[in-house]
Amino acid sequence: MNGATRAILLGAPGCGKGTQAKRLQDVLKAPHLSTGDMLREARKAGTELGRRAAGFMDRGDLVPDDLVIAMVQERLARPDCEGGYILDGFPRTVAQAEALDRAGVVIEAVVDITVGEDEVVRRITGRRSCPSCGRVYHVEFAPSRDGTHCDACGTALVQRPDDQEATVRERLRVYHQKTAPLAEYYRAKGLLKSVEGDGGPDAVFARIMAALGHAAGGPAR
User: Fold this and answer.
1) 3-state DSSP call for residue 14?
2) In principle, which of 159, 179, 186, 220 could form an S-S bond with 3, CB 3.0–4.6 Å?
3) Which residues contact 180 (CB under 8 A, 6 or more apart)?
4) Cβ of 122: how many Cβ atoms within 10 Å?
5) Could you tell me the pTM of the whole model?
6) pLDDT digits 0-9 by tens, 99-149
7) Catalytic residues
């Protein structure tokens, strides 16, 4: 593979996918496309697709696959996607992947960032958030100065309900249930690249770049 940048990023919550996607965007000049961001942007812009999606979002319902795929196609048609793109958060199921294929969306690689469940739990349950200004810390990796209060505004830090262990393990169970078949779908197509997500961000990034056919410093020439 010659430096593919039309890619999908897979990875459980807490695997570092968001951090790595931003780095890929900066280095490869390929936009990082989150379907959540696309939905919010289309809604704010008042596009036809955004207005249709808003009804589902307001009711707390999932936006139908056909609507999300139409939004993805619309976004990929913009000039900044001509040199590639990094899809994040979609597809989540085999049915969605098949729909992307039918829509003619080109995927050259699928990178699955793998991290052990206990490590994911450690990463997520260690988060502490400031309920006042929204700043996020980690009890091990990025603590506040005194460990209990926000450095910026002095408010006592809290652990969000969705960062508690029971919730995290349930999120992981659902993720693996839905994503394992998706990974196999792309493995059968010869597109899946599994990358170990343990270690520092720089080491993980180098592995992802290698999986995409790039040198660590930038796109392959």
Assistant:
1) coil
2) 220
3) none
4) 18
5) 0.82
6) 999 989 999 999 999 999 999 999 999 999 999 999 999 999 999 999 999
7) 17, 92, 127, 160, 171
